[in-house]
Amino acid sequence: MYITIKLEQGARDVRKAHNLFKKWVYSTDYASMAAHSIQPVDINLIVDAPLVEGKQSVFRQLRAYLKAAFNLALDAKDTMGADARLKPFNITKVPVTIPKDKGLLETNARERNLDSTEVSHLLRKLDDSYQADVVRLLLLTGQRIRQLLEVLIDLNLNDQTMTLTDRKGRRSQPKRHQIYLAHEAFRIVKTFADYSNKIGSPYLFSRSPDGSLSQDMVRRHVKQLSSEMLKEGLIRENFQTRDLRRTVQSRMADQTRIPLEIQNRILSHGVYGLVEKHYMFAHYRPQFEEAMDIWEKWLFNVERGIFKDRKVVHANFR
Predict the structure, then answer these.
(1) The pLDDT value given to residue 308
(2) With contact defined as beta carbons under 8 Å apart, do 212 and 153 qualify?
């Protein structure tokens, strides 16, 4: 039933879920069991099967889809407007537990990123609050949340750029990282700048004169969005604020033809040697402008459910 509902909703990755269920679930004795009688030990035996074959990515995907299916059915029990076809399953708990085997889901080695459909659902979920605008800007620019919130109001927006301070790594001096703001990103930054000037805050992203917005506030907002989306069956598994940055580069890589070097420079990844030492933003500005325009256009399209099989191409990147 989960597959049927997701197909009706137009989810792009549902066929992947169907193939995983067909190979690892439908062919087992668990397929004939009542869903409400499935226990954590049963789920563990199901998802352990691909691990035995050394397929950790399949393990993660299978576990995520099973969790999403049970969450969707659980939500149907008490939620008004939920799909009535799920209620007869009488799901009262989700038997998918977090594995305890070291290294399977390491916090410091996260791979979670949102696919195109999940990005579309997330963008549609964002309202007109300032918290939502910060999340939008993270998706529009791919920057680290800490560096973004540290930006001071003392900046010149006439050329649609913003300079961040990158302290990551073993640098003796922080690296100044300049990014180009395309149309929507510039609108959001300008709105924050106007408000900060109005209240007399030295920080760009602020709601009071005393300091910048807190990272925890943004993380709590993202956590709430993730929780709601998981309950609604819009995502496979929960995501965190730091997963948005990984999502940006993952989707840039597989949905656009922005060169990897430009992607890395936009996201302030390490570019070593003389190239970095003598790097000047102005030299690459045309490529940055083009790349950010392409990326913003892609986000605009997926928010409206417009997906293309081929990558977005721009003449200068061919």
Answers:
(1) 63
(2) no
Position 302, amino acid: V
Task: For 287-317, write each residue's pLDDT tens digit.
Answer: 999 999 999 999 999 999 886 644 544 434 4
Lookup: tokens for 141: 């620019």
163, containing H or E segment: strand 161-166
pLDDT in tens, 141-197: 999 998 899 898 877 778 898 888 766 544 445 667 888 999 999 999 999 999 999
Residue at 311: amino acid letter: K
Total residues belonging to the chain: 318
Q: 57 CB contacts (<8 Å, ≥6 apart)?
A: none
Q: What is the pLDDT of residues 230-283, one digit of tens each?
A: 999 999 999 999 999 999 999 998 898 898 888 888 988 755 444 444 445 667
SS3 letters across 173-237: CCEEEEEECCHHHHHHHHHHHHHHHHHCCCECCCCECCECCCHHHHHHHHHHHHHHHHHCCCCCC
pLDDT in tens, 27-43: 888 888 888 888 888 88
Task: Please give the torsion angle defined by the CA atoms of residues 134, 138, 139 and 143, in that order, rounded to the nearest 10 degrees.
Answer: 170
Please tell me whether residue 33 adopts helix, strand or coil conformation.
coil
Question: Rounded to whole angstroms, how far apart are CA atoms 48 and 289?
Answer: 46
φ/ψ of residue 212, rounded to 5: -85, 170
- pTM of the entire predicted model: 0.62
Distance (Å, whole) CA 79 – CA 86 = 11
- Joined together, the tokens standing for residue 152 give 């001071």
DSSP at 268: T
Q: How far apart are CA 25 and CA 47, in angstroms?
A: 9
Which residue has 């004795």 as its token pair? 29
Longest Cα separation, the chain: 66
Q: Which residues pair with 180 in a beta bridge?
A: 161
